[in-house]
Amino acid sequence: MDTQALTEQTSALWKMALDYGPRVIGALVVLMVGRLLAKWAASFVGHALEKTKVDATLRPVIASIVRYVVLGLTLLIVLQQFGIETASLLALVGTIGLAVGLALQGTLSNVAAGLMLLFLRPFEVGDHVEAGGSTGVVLGIDMFHTNLRTNDGVDIVVPNSNILSGPIRNMSHFPERVLAMSVNVAADAELGKAVSVLAKTLAEQALVIQDRERTVTVKSLTGGASEIVVNAWVKNDDYQEARSQYLTAVRQALGKAKIALA
């Protein structure tokens, strides 16, 4: 390569650097500022919504939308730094959107499911639910997933599409729920006496709602045991404690009555 050709290439590279260098630097600055601004805007909107009557379930979603809008505007500004015209920009965005949509079908399905969850409102923040194969208290719902916290304090992130694709059990929707338990007594035990003991013990429970229906019925008989099902209404907040107290009292009562458990 002769000296003249090398000089021409160096000059061309230097000219390109002078032409595009400031644009690249400006684009990087805009990206950094836009990212910080998006984070600040989402945080500001989130804190502002906490002081309003907007439902707690919607607050993080609105904050996320604000964040993505700011990031989108930042991207538009960056592209304009390189002189991309509006028509070309729209065509580019459409092409990229189609490609991204095809590549991220699962992610987009989570977004669609998240919107449906927010619209249908099968549960809210603070509800105790069983959905998507997990059980726990709802900590939050965003565009892609739902956060749950299990009874043992473990946080679970469940994709929204998983939640919407199966049944959703909301144990907190009503203030009261049925406490259902099965007690298996030995096959040679006096069945009528066992039912009477279980019913009497149930009536003595302080956490059971006394003016609601209570039932103690024989469900099934096998060669080794008799299954008795107990149903009673309790307050949602008392469910676990009521179950524990009743089962403890049942063992003591059946022991005193000399009725063996199977």
List descriptors.
262 residues, alpha+beta, Helix Hairpins, SH3 type barrels, Alpha-Beta Plaits, 3 domains, three-stranded antiparallel beta sheet, 7 helices, 8 strands
**Rounded average pLDDT:** 81
Strand percent estimate: 15-25%
Tally of helical runs: 7
CATH topology of the largest domain: Helix Hairpins
Number of domains: 3
> What is the share of helical residues?
40-55%
Overall structural class, as computed from helix and strand content, comes to alpha+beta
> In sequence order, what are the helices and strands, one letter per element?
HHHHEEEEHEEHEEH
Shape: elongated
> Quick one: CATH class of the largest domain?
Mainly Alpha
Specify the biggest β-sheet. 5 strands, antiparallel
* DSSP summary, beta strand count: 8
List the uncertain runs.
none
CA radius of gyration: 32 Å
Order of strands side by side in the largest beta sheet? 4-3-2-1-5
Describe the 3D structure:
The chain has helices at residues 3-50, 59-81, 86-103, 105-120, 160-164, 191-203, 239-256, and strands at 128-131, 134-141, 145-149, 155-159, 169-170, 176-186, 215-221, 225-235. It has 262 residues and is of the alpha+beta class. The protein folds into three domains: 3-103, Helix Hairpins, CATH 1.10.287.1260; 122-170, SH3 type barrels; 176-256, Alpha-Beta Plaits (2-Layer Sandwich), CATH 3.30.70. The protein has a five-stranded antiparallel sheet with strand order 4-3-2-1-5. Helix 1 runs antiparallel to helix 2 (59-81) and helix 6 crosses helix 7. The protein starts with a helix and ends in a 6-residue tail after the last helix. The model has no long low-confidence stretch (mean pLDDT 81).
